[in-house]
Write a structure and sequence with these properties.
With 197 residues, the protein is an all-beta fold. It folds into two domains: 37 residues, no CATH class; 147 residues, Jelly Rolls (Sandwich), CATH 2.60.120. 0% of the residues lie in helices and 39% in strands. Strands 1, 2, 5, 9, 11 and 12 form a six-stranded antiparallel beta sheet that branches. Strands 3, 4, 6, 7, 8 and 10 form a six-stranded antiparallel beta sheet that branches. The mean pLDDT is 82.
């Protein structure tokens, strides 16, 4: 038995979208064989959009106990739902330029509609991998969810990542490293995912 519906009685608006009233009480998007389903009809936890970004610019960040923005880590998204959650995920290619062990930290920041930037999770930092220069490269992976922020479809959210260490710095996306495959580019990549609530 098929779950597909006979859509001959479904009303479609001038934009080609299915009129919500045509769906009756069904919230199961899998029952549709064509058309679109408004975000209000999706269950909590549904992915509304994923916006990917990447950067290959070689950037040396020298931060002595001060948070410095990592170039290329920023992304602006326009909300398609109301009161959504946002998953910020970023994978950094990095090489430490230190001769001794050290600690490093990350913070994720956001603003809504161009307002003041604030921590995604107040007063929290995320530890990075910190090895010496002679030990090679590291990969830093940062994932954090912004939730509980009142918002409407059409609002804009801007995210970025900052870095701090007590000593020296780190080079992100350093190119032409020893052993790097010919013709390749070291890259950091990320995405912002909007999730319905």
């Amino acid at each position: 038995m098929s779950n597909a519906r006979n859509l001959s009685k479904v009303e479609v608006d001038t934009n080609g979208d299915i009129e919500v009233g045509s769906l009756g009480n069904a919230n199961d998007a899998s029952a549709l064989t064509t058309g679109t389903l408004g975000t209000a009809r999706l269950p909590a936890g549904s992915v509304l959009q994923v916006s990917r970004f990447y950067d290959s610019t070689s950037t040396y960040v020298y931060a002595t106990n001060t948070f410095v923005t990592i170039q290329g880590s920023g992304k602006t998204v326009t909300a398609v739902g109301n009161n959504s959650k946002y998953l910020y995920h970023y994978v950094l290619s990095a090489e430490a330029d230190q001769g001794s062990a050290y600690n490093c930290f990350y913070k994720v920041w956001y603003n809504k509609n161009g307002g003041a930037y604030q921590d995604v999770i107040s007063n929290r930092v995320y530890n990075g991998n910190a090895i010496t220069d002679s030990q090679g490269t590291v990969q830093h992976v940062i994932s954090v969810i912004l939730e509980g922020v009142s918002s409407n479809a059409g609002d804009t959210f801007d995210f970025y990542l900052s870095y701090s260490s007590l000593v020296g710095g780190t080079e992100f996306n350093q190119q032409s490293l020893g052993g790097q495959p010919s013709g390749t580019t070291n890259t950091s990549i990320g995405y912002v995912m909007e999730i319905s609530t």
